[in-house]
Structures are given as C-alpha cells and as structure tokens.
Amino acid sequence: MPPTAHGSNTTQSRIHPVVLCGGSGTRLWPLSRAWYPKQLLALTSERTLFQDTVLRTADAARFAPPLVVGNHEHRFILAEQLHQLGVAPGTLVVEPMGRNTAPAAAVAALLLTRHEPDALMLVMPADHVIADARAFGDGVECARAAAACGRLVAFGITPTEPHTGYGYIRKGTPMSELPACFALERFVEKPDAATAQAWVDSGAYLWNSGIFLCPAARYLEELERRQPEIVTACRRAIAEGSGDPPFVRLGAEAFATSPSISIDYAVMEHLEGGVMVPVDIGWNDVGSWSALWQISGKDPAGNAMHGDVIAVDVADSLLRTEGPAVAALGLRDVVLVATKDAVLAASRERAEEVRELVEHLAQNGRAEHVAHTVVHRPWGCYETTDQGPRFRVKRLVVNPGQKLSLQMHHHRAEHWVVVQGTAKVERKGETLLLGENESTYIPVGTSHRLENPGRIPLHLVEVQTGTYLGEDDIVRFEDAYGR
C-alpha cells in the first residue's frame, strides 16, 4: 500500500527517540552478562553505550525526551544511568520478557500516538557505537522529510569492508522529491564472503544499521497489516500493565502472547514505498570482541589494552581486565578478557563464536553468564566475596536514603557488620541504629529490613548461614521498588 501522510504538523514536531535496550550481548562475555549486558557497559568511552545513544538525541529543540524500552531486570540501572546524564526519560517501558524489536517498537508507537497522533519515532538500538554524531544528525534530518510524508525510513551504513556478519540493504533509485533519499529496494541476509565482496564492489548495497525513522501511526498500520497479533498483544499488555511515571510495566501474560520478531522481518522486508538514507557515521554494532578491537585505540603493536595489563611481544590483540593483573607473552591475534570470576581466551578470528561458550555455561547449570560477582540492585549493590557449604559472605553497599524490602528467609540466618556509614535495622518490629564496627543478627524466619538513613553510602558485611542460600529464598512483605 502506498504511504499516506498523517497530518500537516509532523515536520514541526520534535522527533521522539525510542531507545531499545533489550539485547543480552552474549558475544561480549565475560564482561557482558544477562543481568548487566553490553549496553550498560562503558566500552568505548567514559559513558555506557546506552548513555551515548541517549546523548545523540539530546538537542531539546529537535528531539523529545527519550522513550526507553528495557528488561525488568535492568529498569533501575537504566533509570540511574539517565539520572547520571541529567536526562529525564519521557517513558521507561519495562518488558516482562524479551520479544525482539517489532513488539518493542509497537509498544512505543502505541504510547506515543495516544497523545501525538502524528508522532515521528526514531528507533535506535542502545548498544551501537556511532563515532560521528554530527553526520548522524544530518542523516536524521534528511530522513525527517521522508517520514513527514508518511514514509518508513531505514538507515544504511556505507560499508568499509565486505563484512559477513551484517545484513545488507539494496538501495534503489534516487528520490528526486526527497534529497539524499533512495527507494528501499530490498533487505538481504548475511552473505558469504564472495557475495559480500561483490555487493560492496557494486556500490548498491549498504549495511543494515537497525535504526529506523517513521511515523508511529504508519508503523502500526504496516504491522497491523502483516503481524496483527503483535499489535493486539501490545495493546493488551499496555492496558493490563501498571507502574508509576516514568515506568510503564507491561502486562506479562498479554506480552508473552506476542510473536518474537524483528522490525526487519515483521515490516521492512515487505514494505512498499520504503525509503533508505545512506549514512557514513562511523557505525559499529560492537557485536564481538573482534569488533571492539577494531574500533579501539591501539598501541604501535596493534594491541587494544584496558586495565592492569602487562604485554611482552604481543601483537594485534585485545587484552582487557576488570580486576586481576593480566600478563601476556608472545601472543598474536588473541582476545584475552579477565573479570573477577571468569577469563576468556580466544583467537580473534573466532571471537564471533563466544556465544557458543555462553550456551555451554547455561547447559551445564553454571551462573557466570548471568551475573557478575557485583550484582546491582535499585538500593545499591552486593558482591559475594566468599562461600562454601552452609555459608556465604557478601559485601553490601546501600545508597544514601535507600532501603531494602521488608523481608524474611526460610532457610538462612544473617549476621550484619557495619563497616562504613549508619544502618537503620528493622528486626521483628524493633528498630536499631548501628554505626561503624557494630553488628546485629537476623535469625531464620525473622522479618527484617535494612535502610541507609545517612548521607554517605552504607557499607556492611553480611554473613549468611543455613541449609539453603539461594537468592530465591526471600519473602517480601513491603518493597519501595515494586518487586
């Protein structure tokens, strides 16, 4: 069906950034994990990939506050990272489970068109690197003219090599009425090496960035035509959801009924009248350690190094540590990544296959792919420092003014020792104030709560003892974070 305009005020309205934060980034293990994936990490600058994505649309004259779609496990981390930037989200949509990009964008479109029927949404993955923000902005302005006419626009990346790990877009004829825009001829899947080389040589194919600008209402029309069950599920998920601003928690039962499918498959590959804007913006999806090596600063031997690394006679390698000192000798073309609880060693040419290692960890019931030793919570964080049969030792940090839920455990007792700050402890109806070097004991089955009433972070050591020490042994009676 040919495109239709959705109103005369679209070109005067601010574009709504829609930041998709649902990826797990398994190919960047052990740094990226399910509870703290790559978009939440500072890989290429002092800011995280998510923060850099948000800042690309920080111009309030051109862009509305971001609408962020993320997993429920990450919601408070996303809110905190926005707070660090001084950015207030328009909405932070909490997905109960991942359903790929088409449903995520549908939820965003439904929410935006409630208050702005002609809304334009710029859909962006949160885990990409764009080196040239100005060129990206220029590309968005070119695409705005097409979107204002009711077109769905894909951004094609000018290829720098015949990459076999990316999908491609074939551009059609130039659109005389829309400068710098081309007809979107077709999407094509990841090619083999020979095909990729031929495509790049032809000049007609560009990498598929996964970034789209479109009228929200038009996107819903196309999705309703081809995947109506997605729209139905997303409408129900919003209607059955809950939450206080800026959070919108989708109804889990309804959202689970949506097919899991990408925007490309659901809409763009079947689109009539689609538009493609070529951009040369220094784009990289940071999809592997090899990709991160390519865009990182390197020493004269071609090594990208981060952390406490000693390298002797090492070349063309990525060496990174988040804790222990790493010493490397006589290596070529390797990836060596160390965290507090895991080390990855791989040839750089096979870095794309790290996902298979992660699957192996999951199949063997291990937890290193799920969380780091430091686990972030809305009230602060904790780190397991030692554990054995019937005991576990944790270091807890509770941020000023924050408190844990009122809870109890069926199988474990807890000993708390304050190391820094002041702890307010509620224990079976009584309230205690503990200072540094003071402690308390929480017996099995006792209701309790920990709070930091002070102005500095509260640090304490928790010693758990009991027959079962799993994180799921918790009964919450009250919780300020809606868990």
Structural commentary:
- The chain is of the alpha/beta class.
- The protein folds into three domains: 10-284, Alpha-Beta Complex (Spore Coat Polysaccharide Biosynthesis Protein SpsA, Chain A); 289-362, no CATH class; 374-478, Jelly Rolls (Sandwich), CATH 2.60.120.
- It contains eleven helices and 29 strands.
- The strands form seven sheets. A six-stranded antiparallel sheet has the order 19-20-21-28-23-26, with no helix packed on it. A five-stranded mixed barrel has the order 6-9-7-8-11. A four-stranded mixed sheet has the order 13-15-17-18, with helices on one face.
- Helix 1 packs across helix 2 (75-85) and helix 3 packs across helix 6 (216-226).
- It is globular, with a radius of gyration of 25 Å.
- The model is unreliable at 4-11 (pLDDT under 50).
Biggest sheet, spatial arrangement of strands: 19-20-21-28-23-26
Count every beta strand, where a strand is a DSSP E run of 2 or more residues: 29
Overall pLDDT: 92
User: Helix/strand-derived class?
Assistant: alpha/beta
Question: In angstroms, what separates the terminal alpha carbons?
Answer: 45 Å
Report the total helices: 11
Low-confidence parts:
4-11
- What is the helical fraction, as a range of percent? 10-25%
**CATH superfamily of the largest domain, called what?**
Spore Coat Polysaccharide Biosynthesis Protein SpsA, Chain A
